[in-house]
Amino acid sequence: MYLEFFQLQEHPFRLSPDANFLYLSQQHARALAYVESTLWFTDGFVIITGEIGCGKTTLLEKFLSELEDDVTIARIAQTQVTATQLLQGLLAQFGYRPFRMGKAELLDTIDRHLEELLQKGQKVVIVVDEAQNLDRSVLEELRLLSGVGSGRAKVLSVILAGQPELNQILDAPDMEQLAQRTRLRYHLKPLTEKETGAYIRHRLTVAGAGAGERRIFEPGTAALIFKFTGGVPRLINTLCDTAMLSGFAENSEHIGEKEIRTAIDELQWTDYQSRTDQMAALKAGAMNTFSGMETVARLIVAHEGDEAVDYPVAQGRIILGRTGDNDLQIDSKFVSRHHAQIVTYGAESLLEDLNSTNGIYVKGKRVKKYRLKHGDVFIIGEHEIMFMQDNQEG
């Protein structure tokens, strides 16, 4: 929308992970080195944890994008699976058709395949994102698989990335064997205020702003951005993108405090610490975040067997997706991490797919972008969502 206006080649603050935009802070560089060590030591697990939005998935994308041909990758994207489904998913990625195999046959086929790769000098890395959702039986299956090979000759390494709860799972008494097989653990924290400024400049440079004198974000804005994002990369992206939309709307080539505060108002954010406290209170059932919100529309979210949820839509942007960092969380295996967004300015609301796996459907057709009208129903996964504008009849 604003690329030509700001003389950019790519969107600098999109929410979907992109290895080209990875900002290697000191801690991200260290985490990447730990992940890369799996190629040297094929005998254990590497665990990367961090709060939602801290860059775990982007870091994994960077690692995967730079692998040589002698490395076979298996990615576990769906973590709400049984042990049998895990084995089937791995074999499917290895080129087999395993869905009629029993567990014994699955295990035998995987063992033979891994042994063949070992003989050819190949390495295998299993990468699991959102690993905190894995059942303990699935984690145990991964531990057993990692033992393929004899002596010092191992073929398989496993990288587990997840939210902090993953560490709690691994520290449980019944997970002691897996914990002993873990070579490295690293926890990603949010960026510092100084790193926040560097992160913004880095992404703009990659997007085409150049490293010269042209500065889109004015000096001093990083402190304000840090205050309202806490240094969480995904939140920085959301705020900066909204601020650039504001600057574009106001024909301003530079983003200063005015544009940042306009974006904050549109997002209806308080400072990060207050918002974090509110989220914790909401999880405890102590408060209603949406009370008093000035809305322009509502989303009625329906799913068979569940009570319908009424979600308010205000000016600005809301993100819909599976994980808890979304504005509207739809906790379903059929919904992507960040599935869709609705951008509302004035009386118009635009629904947009965020490169989701299963897409958005309106009137039976998959859509990339769709201008919502009062009474429209769109489908995400198994959920039907009705868009209802305020002050409309019917």
Keywords:
394 residues, alpha/beta, five-stranded parallel β-sheet, 18 strands, 35% helix, 22% strand
Question: Quick recap of the structure?
Answer:
By secondary structure, the protein is an alpha/beta fold. It is built from 12 helices and 18 strands.
Structure, described:
The chain is α/β, with parallel strands linked by helices. Helices cover 35% and strands 22% of the residues. The chain contains twelve helices and 18 strands. The strands form four sheets. Strands 9-8-18-17-14-15 form a six-stranded antiparallel beta sheet, with no helix packed on it. It has a five-stranded parallel beta sheet with strand order 2-3-6-1-7, with helices on both faces. Strand 8 and strand 9 form a beta hairpin. Helix 8 (193-209) crosses helix 9. The radius of gyration is 23 Å and the shape is globular. Mean pLDDT is 86; it is low at 281-293.
